[in-house]
Design goal:
- By secondary structure, the protein is α/β, with parallel strands linked by helices.
- The protein has 2 domains: about 325 residues, Up-down Bundle (ABC transporter transmembrane region fold); about 220 residues, P-loop containing nucleotide triphosphate hydrolases (Rossmann fold, 3-Layer(aba) Sandwich), CATH 3.40.50.
- Helices cover about 65% and strands about 10% of the residues.
- Helix 3 runs antiparallel to helix 4 and helix 6 packs antiparallel against helix 11.
- The protein is elongated and about 125 Å long.
- About 30% of the residues are buried.
- The protein binds adenosine-5'-triphosphate.
- The site of adenosine-5'-triphosphate (ATP) has 13 residues, from helix 12.
- The site of adenosine-5'-triphosphate has 13 residues, from helix 12.
């Protein structure tokens, strides 16, 4: 359990300086916006177009309303000066026009919000699918790397958070258009007003920008800890951990670690929020002073008779709206560029390329295998380890042969089969299949022809039928195939006792799911091996949880059913191992002995020693 800080930064989680982002980087991140809009467009072109058109219409409304307001006031003043019985028709027209515009503006606003949220949902769904699709192409090794998980986590967050970015950028465009309309009026009156306006707004923009940068750095720097918090929250309350949490009395331990980490984040965030609020009030005070200076200027000119009262309301209204628009645009610029930085995380994740992939002109997997697999001085070291998990491995796995792998815990047996299934590529040496490097074969074809059931197989919280069909998911509707696979792996006896048989939900996560015992799960997982038409079958400790009778039966069947197929078995039970044609003994990742049961007994080496040790235990 990664209860210590997973960053390895010894007690300095979320260190801001490590994750500092410059203004230049933020501007640079805006380059991600076109690609982002491309993704949004792909989510729904029609909604996207509708959104843009409605926003352009809405952008023109504020200035029209202000202008009509000015005309109304001028008209009212004119009419109060005129004699009784003057014609009010013009005034009513103006009032109706303003009312109409106000209603239209509200309707447009609601339609835009609706489209934003629909588009947001579509975008979130589409991106989640893309993240899953991309994850499927990546290497196992990449999944074992914590920095990869941080990236994946940040990318996942994009699917939810980025819809806000969409409305922000489109809102930005809309407000900019409105601003141009309003600014036109102000410039015609007095260009200096624009200068006052900018001076009033820029300080608070700089403040916003500064604090957004800090908050992005804080959140980004805290990604590993946030993952740890999620993990602790899950471990503290999940069916997977409940048993051991109770037995070992772990809840206080988990809760305390959670409290410690979450408190650290809270205090860092609180400090930043307080600073942000204090500076924000001060800087926006400057903006208010600017507004009132301009207001005084406009009033002065009105008193001097240079402009009408209607002009006064129009200009004061324009200035006030321009100020808030400009403040909005500038502060939104900070969040847009911050959003674009998060996008960078998403695109960085999409840019991760798998190392293990098919070559352009990949070979089809041989049908049938002619010469078998040849290991030529194969060595493998996990990327995060100094130790060689396999080294100097040279042997041949003949077509149709049943090979058993034997060795102590950590000897490298699972690693060897992972190399065979090309979950990893050798660090040194090579593996040949029918004389060609394994890397030359089409990866999908290779995986289809090599069926592996791992010791830590996944207990999918799905129906019993699906759990078997996993072995060949394309056949998930083929009930007779699923049933015969279940028979072969002895899972049929387990499944027939379940209330809903093959439709029974397994695991306790959903609905009326039923939990199976370890051995029962293993029989179900073994069924997956029989679903496949794979030429090579690999069973990594497939019978560890089976009782003695079940194990005997499983192997009787396995021998019959894999006639003519190549099979690799990993087992610590010598009763199983001796049924193999040949046995490969691994020690510290290296090949120690290889031969049939009888040959190895004659050699009287490690195998003979371990065999006798186990046999003695049964006497
Ligand atoms: N994903 C991994 N990252 C780093 N090291 C690993 C990883 N998986 C295994 N190892 C290391 O590689 C070595 C070989 O492991 P492997 O799982 O192949 O052993 P094994 O013979 O199958 O053991 P067991 O009998 O316990 O299943 C071990 O020292 C193990 O710690």
């Amino acid at each position: 359990m990664a209860i210590r800080s997973s960053t390895g930064r010894s007690g300095r989680p979320g260190n801001e300086t490590d994750e500092k982002v410059t203004l230049r980087e933020r501007l640079g991140a805006l380059r991600n916006l076109p690609a982002f809009f491309h993704m949004v467009w792909d989510a729904s072109p029609s909604l996207f177009i509708a959104n843009v058109i409605l926003r352009i219409f809405r952008a023109a409304i504020p200035v029209l309303i202000l202008y009509i307001g000015k005309l109304i006031i001028d008209e009212v003043i004119l009419q109060t000066k005129q004699s009784h019985g003057s014609d009010h028709e013009h005034l009513w027209w103006l009032i109706s026009a303003e009312l109409g515009l106000a209603i239209l503006s509200d309707g447009l606003g609601r339609s835009i919000a609706l489209i934003d949220s629909l588009l947001g949902d579509l975008f979130a769904n589409k991106t989640s699918v893309q993240i899953m699709e991309h994850a499927a192409t990546l290497d196992l090794e990449q999944f074992e790397d914590p920095t990869f998980y941080d990236k994946l986590e940040r990318a996942r967050q994009q699917t939810i958070g980025r819809t806000v970015l969409l409305s922000q950028v489109l809102g930005q465009v809309q407000d900019t258009i409105t601003m141009f309309f309003l600014a036109g009026g102000l410039i015609a009156f007095n260009p200096w007003l624009i200068v006052v306006l900018l001076l009033a707004v820029i300080p608070s923009f700089l403040g916003e920008n500064y604090f957004n940068e800090k908050s992005y750095s804080l959140v980004r720097g805290w990604t590993p800890e946030r993952r740890e918090l999620d993990y602790l929250r899950y471990m503290g309350a999940s069916d997977e951990s409940a048993k051991e949490v109770k037995i070992f009395g772990l809840s206080d331990f988990l809760i305390n670690r959670f409290k410690e980490l979450s408190w650290q984040f809270y205090t860092q965030n609180k400090r930043l929020s307080i600073r942000r609020a204090s500076w924000g009030s001060l800087l926006s005070g400057i903006g208010t002073i600017g507004y009132y200076s301009a207001y005084v200027l406009i009033i002065w000119r009105t008193i001097g008779g240079k402009i009408s009262i209607g002009d006064l309301t129009f200009l004061a209204g324009s200035f006030r709206q321009l100020r808030s628009l400009l403040e909005g645009i500038l502060s939104r610029f900070s969040s847009v560029s911050q959003g674009a930085l998060y996008l960078r995380d998403l695109f960085e994740y999409f840019d991760i390329k798998p190392n293990i992939a098919s070559l352009e002109k990949a070979l089809p997997f041989p049908r049938p295998i002619q010469q078998g697999f040849v290991f030529e001085n194969v060595g493998f070291r996990y990327h995060n380890s100094e130790r060689w998990a396999n080294r100097h491995l040279s042997f041949t796995l003949h077509p149709g042969e049943k090979l058993a792998l034997v060795g102590e815990n950590g000897a490298g047996k699972t690693t060897l089969v992972k190399l065979l299934a090309r979950l990893y590529d050798p660090t040194e040496g090579r593996i040949l299949l029918d004389g060609r490097d394994l890397r030359e074969y089409d990866l999908k074809d290779l995986r289809e022809n090599i069926g592996v059931i791992f010791q830590d197989f996944v207990r999918f919280k799905m129906t019993a039928g699906t759990n078997i069909a996993i072995g060949k998911i394309g056949d998930k509707e083929n009930l007779s195939r699923i049933e015969s696979s279940a028979q072969q792996s002895l899972a049929n006896h387990v499944i027939e006792k379940l209330p809903a048989r093959y439709d029974q939900m397994l695991g306790r996560s959903f609905g009326d799911g039923v939990e199976l015992s370890g051995g029962e799960w293993q029989k179900v997982a073994l069924g997956r091996a029989y679903m496949r038409d794979a030429q090579v079958l690999i069973l990594d400790e497939p019978t560890a949880a089976l009782d003695a009778r079940a194990e005997y039966e499983v192997f009787q069947r396995f021998a019959e059913l894999t006639q003519g197929k190549t099979a690799v078995l990993i087992s610590h039970r010598f009763s199983t191992v001796r049924m193999a044609d040949r046995i490969l003994v691994l020690d510290n990742g290296e090949l120690l002995e290889i031969g049939s049961h009888e040959e190895l007994l004659q050699v009287d080496g490690r195998y003979a020693e371990l065999f006798r040790l186990q046999a003695r235990g049964y006497q």
